[in-house]
Amino acid sequence: MREMRDSGIEWVGQIPKGWELRRAKTLFTQSNSKGNKIEVLLSPTQKYGVVPQSQLEGVVQVKEDTDLQMFKTIHKGDFVISLRSFQGGFEYSLYEGVCSPAYQVFYPTSPICDTYYRYLFKSQSFISKMNNLTVGIREGKNIQYIDFANSQIPVPPIAEQERIAAFLDAECAKIDAVLEKTRASIEEYKKLKQAVITQAVTKGIRGDRPMKDSGIEWIGDIPAEWRKTQLRHCAAIKSGITLGKKYEKTDSLVERPYLRVANVQDGYVDLSVLTTIKVTQDEDLKYRLHAGDVLMTEGGDRDKLGRGCVWHGEIEPCLHQNHIFAVQTSKDTLLPEFLEYLTVSDVGRSYFDVTAIKTTNLACTSSSKVLAFTIPLPSVEEQAEIVEALNTKCAGIDALIAKKQQYLTEIENYKKSLIYEYVTGKKEVKISVLAD
């Protein structure tokens, strides 16, 4: 077992005696040059590193007549400090091109193993160090190259850098394969849940019986005794409060919690982060939620637009923002829980996707579109049966998904720990290990 010594740096901890500690500026230097012979616009991403912007979805593309020679140069092997580096570390480029001047680019000026530092700069301990720089020194602003340049980082011998990089490449490839398989399994369970819900809200749960064509492509056949109707005939819709209103000093205001789009999730209300707002007493009464309201989002991710969840009065009183619709059903015709399942089924997903105003991966709808939502409608008694059956089936599937998610988290944490242990020298890569 090799001898260790205290690095004197909290995020690094102990390092092998043969390792150096050097300020980053002795290994790297910043680049501010502009333009590139290869005019490819690159974007730093936490998931993929630095990649051509054309490969990314949901990114606002630059205009065709934009002069890319005015953008910052990136060469293969450069590192980039992105705007969110305090969340995901520094990114590495395998491409030639240019990037937005908002990013900071640096490159090695001393002999190093690039891959070793790719792992170091994406390790959780390094990211925490960078996060402390932004919060502690710059109060949430972007990381500056000078802050990184003055930071001390471990410098193993080149041969050991290469051994660590090769070992982590091999081990992380195995771990990533497990992660990919687990994520795929989770997605399959989610698709199963969606299929179970769609089957129940369009075909019922009473077995074979006479069917009829609904006349709606994404609804298909429905039981003969069911009817179809627009939501306007069995529900009313209420918009929420618009933010940013100015009040007079003489206005009597009360402070109330209110829900934002982020609080409305598939099947539940997330109250982990709740914002408050000061309103008049009239506004307090006008925009209050009531138990049984179905919350539906006006805008957001295309795959979640119009998602519904029932408000059970978790907090009283509570208001809602104008980007959330509160749908109040006629309970003798439509159960709010049945409407919730309709919004997350293929019926709801297809309707809101077809009718939405879309911009790349975002979309929005309107109260008129919500009220025009055509739904299959069984009797209230059968709706109750379907809701009860789906509650049981979905709970079982959700439990399986949660188990997979827990395993996913454990593997991700193991990967982070593995990287940290080796890039800081807590564990040693034996030459015999790589030979095997």
Q: How does this model look, in words?
A:
- Belongs to the type-I restriction system S methylase family.
- The protein is built from eleven helices and 28 strands.
- It has about 425 residues and is of the alpha+beta class.
- Strands 4-11-8-9 form a four-stranded antiparallel β-sheet, covered by helices on one side. A four-stranded antiparallel β-sheet has the order 16-25-21-23. Strands 20-17-24 form a three-stranded mixed β-sheet.
- It is elongated and about 80 Å long.
Describe the secondary structure blueprint for this structure.
Elements: E1 4-6, E2 14-16, E3 20-23, E4 28-31, E5 42-45, E6 49-52, E7 72-74, E8 79-81, H1 85-88, E9 91-92, E10 97-99, E11 104-108, H2 114-121, H3 124-137, H4 145-149, E12 152-155, H5 158-203, E13 211-213, E14 221-223, E15 227-230, E16 235-238, E17 253-259, E18 264-265, E19 268-269, E20 275-280, H6 281-286, E21 294-297, E22 299-301, E23 308-310, E24 319-320, E25 324-329, H7 336-344, H8 346-355, E26 357-359, E27 362-364, H9 367-371, E28 374-377, H10 380-423, H11 431-435
Parallel strand pairs: 17-24
Antiparallel strand pairs: 1-2, 3-12, 4-11, 5-6, 7-10, 8-9, 8-11, 13-14, 15-28, 16-25, 17-20, 18-19, 21-23, 21-25, 22-27, 26-27
Helix pairs in contact: 2-5, 5-7, 5-10
Family: Belongs to the type-I restriction system S methylase family.
Protein name: Restriction endonuclease subunit S
Pfam families: Methylase_S (PF01420)
Derived from helix and strand composition plus strand pairing, the structural class reads: alpha+beta
Number of strands: 28
Kindly report the spatial arrangement of strands forming the biggest sheet.
Answer: 4-11-8-9
Write the CATH fold name of the domain at 4-156. Answer: Adenine-n6-DNA-methyltransferase TaqI, Chain A, domain 2
Q: What is the global morphology?
A: elongated
Number of helices: 11
CATH homologous superfamily of the domain at 4-156? DNA methylase specificity domains
**Roughly what fraction of the amino acids lie in strands?**
15-25%
Give the CATH level 1 class of the domain at 4-156.
Alpha Beta
Largest sheet: 4 strands, antiparallel
Gyration radius, in Å: 28 Å
Give the helix level as a range of percent: 25-40%
CATH hierarchy: architecture of the domain at 4-156? Alpha-Beta Complex
Q: Give the rounded overall mean pLDDT.
A: 91
> Poorly predicted ranges (pLDDT <50, ≥5 residues)?
135-140
Measured between the Cα atoms of the first and last residue, the distance is 20 Å
Keywords: DNA-binding, Endonuclease, Hydrolase, Nuclease, Restriction system
EC number: 3.1.21.-
Domain Type I restriction modification DNA specificity: 16-186
GO molecular function: endonuclease activity; hydrolase activity
